[in-house]
Amino acid sequence: MISTNSPLIGKSSVVVTGETRQQGALSTVIADHFEPPVLNEKVKLDKVFNARNLQQICGIKIRWTSNLADYLMMRNDDTAVEIFHCAAFLRCHENSSLFPKGFIEETIQTLAILLPEHNKDVKTWFKSQQKLIDTAIFQLARECGQLKKSVRQIKNFVYWHDRLLILKQVFDEAEPSTASQWWNDRRKKVQWCTFWVAALVLLLTIFFGLLQGIEGALQVYKAFNP
User: Fold this and answer.
1) What H or E segment, with its residue span, contains residue 80?
2) How far, in Å, CA of 129 to CA of 115, rounded?
3) pLDDT on residue 194
């Protein structure tokens, strides 16, 4: 169990901590829980891959949690994901021997991917999330910087590799199902442009069709009522 705060329960977000208890020294339990996997995938974590787009494009519900063990866990048949928001806790333990070497730094980097500090859309979305829940999400979660392209590679993530990879696969495979999701989905720009051009042509066709219909009706009316 690695909980850094009490569970956060909001009006539209519910935290499912999934806490478990294990025996042994805390540092050993932490090291075992976050055991590094074998890395061999070559996956790039594009800028479009962030918490806002997970929700706005894929319809994935964001669950803010104070339990570090639940971070990046997918829930409800991959329709929700847990995001750890206690960045202050991470900052306080940057030089701690309690966690495996590089673990805290990597965790902060994952927050920089999901909540890029200089992304205006994410900033606006994050503020709306803070208003939706009863207990404030810590602002520091969105102040973890922004990673360079060379760092945004799945191979650079050791401890969070598997969970990040699963989340990225869910993100890549998700298809928009509403007009709002289609509008926000810029992952495939050519497909996005094609869709909205076709939608615009359809709307214009319907519009001019209605105009012609109204004009025809008026001409018939005038013919019978000179």
Assistant:
1) strand 80-84
2) 12
3) 73
In the numeric block, which tokens belong to residue 171? 């993100």
Query: What is the rounded CA–CA span in Å between residue 171 and residue 53?
Result: 9
Give the chain's count of helices (H) and strands (E): 8, 3
Amino acid at 4: T
Backbone φ and ψ for 146, nearest 5 degrees, come out as -145, 130
Dihedral of CA atoms 112, 1, 17, 66 in degrees, nearest 10, equals -40
Residue 139, CA distances (Å) to 68, 111, 118, 187, 195 in order: 17, 12, 14, 27, 37
**Residue 74, SS3 per DSSP:** strand
Condensed to tens digits (0 to 9), the pLDDT of residues 29-42 reads 666 666 665 556 67
- Alpha carbons 198 and 208: distance in angstroms, whole number: 15
pLDDT tens per residue, range 95-125: 988 899 999 999 999 999 999 999 999 999 9
Distance CA 197, CA 201 (A): 6
Of the two residues 114 and 6, the one the predictor is more confident about is 114
Q: Which of 149, 144, 172 is nearest to 85 (CA)?
A: 144
| Three-class DSSP category at 196 | helix
Question: Residue 117 CA to chain centroid, in angstroms?
Answer: 14
- Report the predicted TM-score, pTM, of the whole model to 2 decimal places: 0.70
d(CA 172, CA 57): 10
Contact call for residues 62 and 54 (beta carbons, < 8 A): yes
The more confidently predicted of residues 78 and 208 is: 78
